[in-house]
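re: ur question from earlier - yeah i can do the single chain one, its not a big deal. heres the input i used so u can compare w yours
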Amino acid sequence: MGYALPHDAASIDDALTAAGSDLDVARHVLTTEANGLLALAATLDDTFARAVDRLAAATGRIVVTGMGKSGHVGRKIAATLASTGTPSLFVHPAEASHGDLGMIVRGDAVLALSNSGETIELADLVAHCHRFGLPLVAITAQADSALAQAADVALLLPDAAEACPMGLAPTTSTTMQMALGDALAVALLTKRGFTAQDFRRFHPGGRLGQRLRRVRDVMHAGDAMPLVGPATRMDAALLVMTEKRFGCLGVTGAEGRLVGILTDGDLRRAMGTALLSREVGEIMTRDPRTIGPDALADEALRAMNAPERPVTTLFVVDAAHVPVGILHIHDLLRVGQM
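and the output i got, formated as tokens:
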């Protein structure tokens, strides 16, 4: 399905009448915007790399600006930059002309969005960039526009149809702006070597922040660990297992290395009249699944849910395979992993 671009009120009415079902309209919008993104990806060249270099070289912040729908997109881009390790803020261009230019100082770089490139409200901000030698990167659809000509680097949006039947409402163009902003943010975080741990520092709250916690932050350590030696008799081992309440025992051998684990399942398989007089080493499961203290809590959850053999408990071991903690699935529930 497609829409012909209307030229007058009558053709606009005809286009709206011919739009079809709600589902047809939705598919048209998504397809049109997806085609715009594909066209944008195909047109990227070394200019994008130059824009990234300009923004990465800023010793201050990336100041994002835009008017109208471009401004709404700009706010999102500024938020994405800030949350991925690139200090950023949004400055409304009209407010900039009434005092907010003072927020933009030496060391900052400016990212300006305008589909037409002729947004009059940007004029004072562009002049401010030139006055103080601030790098200016533009996102616009018009190579010969005032904004593109004034910018140090102009990232050009391809000629792509808007998704509305009138061809007027900013839809495809704003989608391309937002996607290009995401591309800049991800390129910058990659260039800076931004890590998942860095990401957690900027997202300490909510489910995402909890998923990025380290195992060492939620494990039980020290005397809380249920540990015995392989020569321990089962009657004594069961007392430790009951006291620690993890439903398992870690078995340590020479130099304190973890050599096995004793679980409820092992007890059921070994059940018999002589069970209490046997040694733990005869019954334990050797080479148990473990995890390191610096692994993400989310990795621990995936390890516990391994389809070949799900478990509810993991021992946390150091580089020498010595237990430093124990992690139960309830600990992950407590920090919001499930």
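DSSP finds 16 helices and twelve strands in the chain. not sure if urs matches, ping me
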